[in-house]
Specification:
This protein is α+β, with helices and mostly antiparallel strands and about 180 residues long. It folds into two domains: about 45 residues; about 120 residues, Uncharacterised protein YcnI-like PF07987, DUF1775 (Immunoglobulin-like, Sandwich), CATH 2.60.40. It contains two helices and ten strands. α1 packs antiparallel against α2. It starts with a helix and ends with a helix. About 20% of the residues are buried. The mean pLDDT is about 80.
């Protein structure tokens, strides 16, 4: 019985050490996710959600998408209170889509998300580099990521191991 309790305790401590620490967002940070749809005939649709993962006080109000080549670009939809402009390659080497809130009331507050950003382009753009601007002045540079991240395999391992351990503890108590 003591050996079982010791094993259970060691397993739980080892499991806790395997769980990654939750990252604490440092000052301004954005998570921008998308769904990609092939519309055929060389057109691709991108539907975006902007997440403001910043600390308190940093409101997300502007996102630039930096395309890797000139593109035929069309905004399909923007959320209420947001506008967009396409800067073509005449001034810059490639096209840039600029989305921004038209009033501070529509800025994305820390810890909140906003979807409804959709556009089409004439090539499969995939992960598009972006610049996100915040009310405090800083700009965050990044690359977008797909929406459905894979769960951590260590989470599955710990959950399964915990279930097996719990089952063995219940069985040992019934016998003893």
């Amino acid at each position: 019985m003591k050996r079982t309790k010791l094993s259970a305790l060691l397993f739980m401590v080892a499991g806790m050490l395997c769980i990654p620490a939750t990252p604490v967002p440092a000052a301004p940070d954005a998570g921008i996710f998308y769904f990609e749809t092939d519309l055929g005939e060389g057109l691709w649709q991108y539907d975006y959600t902007f997440n403001n993962t910043s600390d308190a006080g940093e409101y997300l109000y502007n996102v630039f998408f930096n395309f890797t080549q000139d593109t035929s670009f069309t905004f399909i939809s923007l959320p209420v209170g947001w506008d967009g402009i396409l800067w073509d390659g005449t001034t810059w080497e490639t096209s840039i889509a600029d989305t921004y809130s038209s009033d501070v009331d529509y800025d994305i507050a820390p810890g909140n998300s906003l979807g409804g950003f959709a556009f089409t382009v004439d090539y499969q753009a995939g992960d598009i580099a972006y610049d996100a601007q915040f009310s405090g002045g800083p700009i965050v540079y990044g690359t977008t990521a797909r929406l459905a991240p894979e769960p951590l395999s260590s989470t599955f391992f710990i959950t399964g191991g915990g279930a097996v351990l719990l089952r063995s503890l219940v069985k040992s108590r019934r016998k003893g």
